[in-house]
Amino acid sequence: LKGSTSSREDGGDQISYEDADPAKPIGKKQEEKELIASGDEDEQSPIEQVALTVPTTDDPSMPVLTFRMWVLGVLSCVLLSFLNQFFWYRTEPLTITAISAQIAVLPLGRLMAATLSKRKFLAGSKWEFSLNPGPFNMKEHVLITIFANSGAGTVYAIHIVSAVKIFYKKKLDFFVAFLIVMTTQILGFGWAGIFRRHLVEPAAMWWPANLVQVSLFRALHEKEKRPKGGLTRNQFFLLVFTCSFAYYVLPGYLFPMITSLSWICWIFPKSVLAQQLGSGLYGLGIGVIGIDWSTISSYLGSPLASPWFATANVAVGFVFVMYVMTPLAYWLNVFDAKTFPIFSEDLFTSSGQEYNISKIIDSNFHLDLKAYEEYGTIHLSTFFAMTYGVGFAALTATIVHVLLFHGKEIWQLSLSAFRDRTVDVHTKLMRKYKQVPELWFQIILIGTIGLSIFACEYYIDQLQLPWWGVLLACVIALIFTLPIGIITATTNQ
């Protein structure tokens, strides 16, 4: 048993092979812990970034479903869900990510570990539990962050509810809106479960954004010796966190104007062409200087978490659409483009006036074709039309790309559903735990589809979506979930 000493301090028991006494018998639980914690150091993930970031060790004895995990997890999910949805209605939406909760719950978890009673309830029964089973560990922290991540994103179905109530001034009962939101959200869990074999288990599906959180977990929980002349992960994190906070005071509070400096518009304030070229709000934003990180990364999200090839592809595509295709279409007056603004999300009449949608909608919230013919067709700004076109083209390109580059792998994974296959080290570690049966996800999916059809049929006067529309939407989701999931899992886009 002579070997290296574990230096982890993640809330679990440390394992020291040097201190082990061979004369003393080792319990089965301790033996299992040592075996798993030691791992096979030669076996690594085939993805270099994963191999450098994610450890190949595990401690199954760590308590996970603890009282503090449930309290902090549910609280994080509810708070992030409310705050992000609340701030989504701002002109410049403010997003609070799961990483914020990941940092915030650590001191709370350790505070609960230090103050909660260690008394055991229902002692001696299979329901025995304690409010405080020991130090706050990494697995609890990870599960709390998963809770937070579930509530961090805004609900896409809220767009429907908001549009109906705000723009069309139509009534939508609370229960109907609640059904829309819940069914669309739960459908996502169903899709995720049935595609788990293709999007989670393969080593090639490495989800780059998750590596950022893994690095942060290790920095917060693992005890690391400071190298000579260098910094530990924790020290580096604190340094960057402090500098980021101090820096953001400038564009966020003291000098908001440096978020976007349109110097071309300053020089030619009355020139329409200058506004079209230089304005970041109504034009192409050429020459705009922005030193606010949210401005710099706005088109990409988090460039630090994406592979270089993905970042470069997005940048090239952005430049091509924004600074080549859009200006050419506008100044060549394609489809009378000069009649409308070059950059706008509004709808317009043929004369360039804002389109009044209420004029073509009847009292039953249906399209009035006669009124539409009299009022005229809807026109879009050049950039708005271009982004819609590129978006539809990207969907087709996604399927073609995945079939060409991942088609063989998808076929093999589909066949492997009926037989065992070689898996990477992290999947092996996960298989030591009981998996959620795929049947559960199928029941969730089928049940939610049934509930969606019921809602659309029973509340047809408010939702106006026939049963076949629900099935068509599910077929579209079934077709696109896998290819889009593969691209997201490998490029973070």
Tell me briefly what this model is.
Helices cover 57% and strands 2% of the residues.
Explain this structure to me?
The strands form two sheets. This protein has a two-stranded antiparallel ribbon. Strands 3-4 form a two-stranded antiparallel ribbon. The protein has 20 helices and four strands. The protein has helices at residues 28-38, 48-53, 67-87, 98-115, 138-152, 157-167, 174-194, 196-199, 208-221, 233-254, 263-267, 272-278, 293-296, 308-331, 369-375, 382-415, 425-430, 438-458, 460-463, 467-491; strands at 120-121, 129-130, 347-348, 379-380. It is globular and about 80 Å long. Mean pLDDT is 81; it is low at 1-39. By secondary structure, the protein is mainly α. It is 57% helix and 2% strand.
Task: Summarize the topology.
Elements lengths: L27 H11 L9 H6 L13 H21 L10 H18 L4 E2 L7 E2 L7 H15 L4 H11 L6 H21 L1 H4 L8 H14 L11 H22 L8 H5 L4 H7 L14 H4 L11 H24 L15 E2 L20 H7 L3 E2 L1 H34 L9 H6 L7 H21 L1 H4 L3 H25 L2
Antiparallel strand pairs: 1-2, 3-4
Helix pairs in contact: 3-4, 3-5, 4-5, 7-18, 14-16, 16-20, 18-20
State the main characteristics.
single chain, 493 residues, mainly alpha, two-stranded antiparallel sheet, 20 helices, globular, disordered N terminus, membrane, transport, protein transport, peptide transport
Low-confidence stretches: 1-39
Mean pLDDT: 81
Give me the side-by-side strand order of the main sheet: 1-2
Give the CA-CA distance, first to last residue. Answer: 46 Å
Portion of residues in beta strands equals: under 5%
Reported for the largest beta sheet, the result is: 2 strands, antiparallel
Please give the radius of gyration in angstroms: 27 Å
Q: Helix content range of the residues, please?
A: 55-70%
Q: DSSP helix count? A: 20
Shape: globular
What is the helix/strand order?
HHHHEEHHHHHHHHHHEHEHHHHH
Number of strands: 4
